[in-house]
Design brief:
Layout: E1 3-7, E2 13-17, H1 30-47, H2 51-64, H3 69-81, H4 85-98, H5 103-115, H6 119-130, H7 138-151, H8 155-168, H9 173-185, H10 189-199, H11 209-220, H12 224-237, H13 242-272, H14 281-288
Helix pairs in contact: 1-2, 1-3, 2-3, 3-4, 3-5, 4-5, 5-6, 6-7, 7-8, 8-9, 9-10, 10-11, 11-12, 11-13, 12-13
Length: 294
Amino acid sequence: MKKNILLIILTIITVSCSSSSKTEKRDLSEDEKKAQLHYAHGTEKLVQKNYTMALNHLLKAVKADPKNPKVHNNLGMAYYFKGKLDKAIEHLQVAIDLDTENFDALNNLASIYFKQGRFELAKTQYQKVLSHLDYPHLYRTHYNMALIYLREGSESKARNHLNQSITESNDYCPSYFLLGKLEYNVKNFNSAYENFHKAGLGTCYTEVAPVFWKGKTLLEQNRLFQAEQIFRDLIKKHPNTVYARRAAVELRDIKRREILARKVRQQNFQYNNIEKPLQSKNEEENEVVESPSF
């Protein structure tokens, strides 16, 4: 089955199945057969992140079959990962011109515009994708729209797209994670913890960031023991990550807070157990009632 490369803002390459084109329903010419062979090899190299070899094969594919939108899409991605954004945009636009419903190319073009800070152009492309309710990756498009609105300072619109992303795919962990951060920032810690927990389930069970932020959320709720357990487990399982170093800092802070709390309890205990001198009745009354002046 032929594949199309799809770029999303998370910089994760995903592979989506493409529908059979008209050329695949008839006998292919020798050039088309040659193009498909190089297209398959080029796509494989893209997935393997061997972008030089991918570019080599896809250039041969587009030379043999210059009107194949899938080839132009993946060639655009090869140029993108080689740092040639102008060439990437050029081939993605050709892919869209050849097939106006090439949603992978629309998403990829929008994502490049996003990375360039051209948010209005990015939104225009994403909106074209969102208008097609049968597109199987709408959840990613909603997530990317949320990122744009956060950059623009519109949190309510970002939340709306994140919730739609989860509605489209209830196991899309990046949307849960971003919702968790938004809830954390407004001190809705119960909701934040729930979203961080969901962000670490399913295919994202190996992700470290949601685990760290679960610990941070527990700290905000003063649940020190549970937070400490999470941070220690994180360091044990992912010792060479930046989050392991951050977790170590949090553990030192927990220790400091525990020592401070222990000192406060000791001081309170000592104060409550000090033997106070007995006072006479008159002394007690003088503390409450002011004596008249003569």
